[in-house]
Hints:
This protein is mainly beta and 323 residues long.
Amino acid sequence: MRKPILSSSRLQLLSMCVVLAAAPGIAQAQAAPDRAVVGTNVKNYANAVLAIMSYTAVPDVTTSSLSINSGVSGNPGFGQSQLGGGFTLSRSFPLYLEGTIAYSRYDPTFIATDGNQERPVPAKWNTASTTIGIGWDFPITSELRFRPILNGMIGRVASDLRVAQTVFNRVANTNLQFLEDGALNAYGLGGSLMLDLEHYREHYEIDVELRATDIYLRSFGSSSEAVQGSAAAQQFSLWARWRAPTGFAALDRPVRYVLETAYSHYFGDSAGVLGFNDLTSLGVGLELDSSRYPVIVTRTRAMVRYVFGHNVHGVSFGFAVSF
């Protein structure tokens, strides 16, 4: 069997949202009548947004495409999509490179007051981020490698709230200033440790990755001095994939079926911010091999995944390519 030219190549294009239901505790305000924004102020929500941004800090099947609906309204309160992957240049020069770009939307609801009236103020916070990683493969055996990775992230959170001509427009409050077209930038620095197993045989292929990640995120350049945030992204993940021929052929190569599983556990500020501490994914799909032809894409996969965790579950459709 012809092995991939690039060891550990797993560049992926993932699409379609996971639709999850009944994620409690997202953006609920408590009473604090001395504030224009009642309850947990916008600074604390900025911390929460950075904690949510940590879900896109590393390539992760379980959160690469995610949408969470409010258990009360049924409307999406959070959604994200991620494009990413990584590869080792060669066995003779085992430099590992990875990268992701991600977009997420977070829709908290605040309670605003002028001292006499209280009214909900829905907000829409849009987040874009990109993460890069540089590592080096240290072979343990011919199939198992230890891979330390240095990670860096840059992102931006922007609010597109338009407060109507109500009494709340007249409240002078730096928190509300951020809600009205405010923005903050964020950076993250940290690293990962990975064990990567590639067990390839003529009639099947097994890939397994075990990864621990710790990245510290901090905001900078906010349009409102009252809104500064930080978060610690700490994650443990296990990913495994089995590929074997179906007995059919296309493009002069066997068509393979693919079985996949992934588990992610979140620590630090990522834990519980969306109502769960871990996610599990089970996937099945088909893979076409185009390596016989002079094209850059060697394999193309279509996957269906079932994702579940505490209070959340759903189905996703993914598309991936290998180079």
